[in-house]
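Listing S7. Sequence submitted for prediction.
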Amino acid sequence: MAPAPAPQGQPAHLRRTALICAGVAMGMTGLAFASVPLYDMFCKATGFGGTPMVGTAGAGVILDRTMAVRFDANVAPGLGWAFTPESPEITLRVGQTQTVFYKITNRSSRTSTGIATFNIAPEKGAAYFVKIQCFCFTEHTLQPGESLEAPVVFYIDPEIAGNRDLDGVNSMTLSYTYFQSKAGQPVAEGKGDAAKSNL
């Protein structure tokens, strides 16, 4: 019986296919790690998903058009905090910079750390809600009975007047939810996974 022939090297096209597949797999892995920050940047740049825009200064132009802004404050179960806006609703002129304070109190008998997430409704108006200063996504640690007043500084971008689809929008709601915080991330009670914000 004749010996089996020695194995030949792999054809060039099989090696090339294997390299392409490995490259695609590595690219997909990298994209998976980058998807959360990229999505966050996209939301902040476009207002998608109820994410307000971030600004560094006032609008510079104030219109006669007015807008009602409602303030919603929620606390996830298990945190033991009270969380309320100084006013449930205000009316301001489009382009006018406004500051509203929220009061946060630890009503529990233990020191705890929380972090707030937020969104804007209606979503289509979020691209015109510009926050200059906000306490959201910043951890706060409160002792039992300790209170904190935290400001949010914002304006409605005058460019809203140029969007005919938003002519009928005369109110927005800024909604915050405080969660327990772990390693700088909001955590839902009884779950190891970070709570998902509406971003």
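Caption to Listing S7: primary sequence and predicted structure tokens for the chain studied. The first strand starts at residue 53 and ends at 54. The chain has two domains: 15-54, 66-183.
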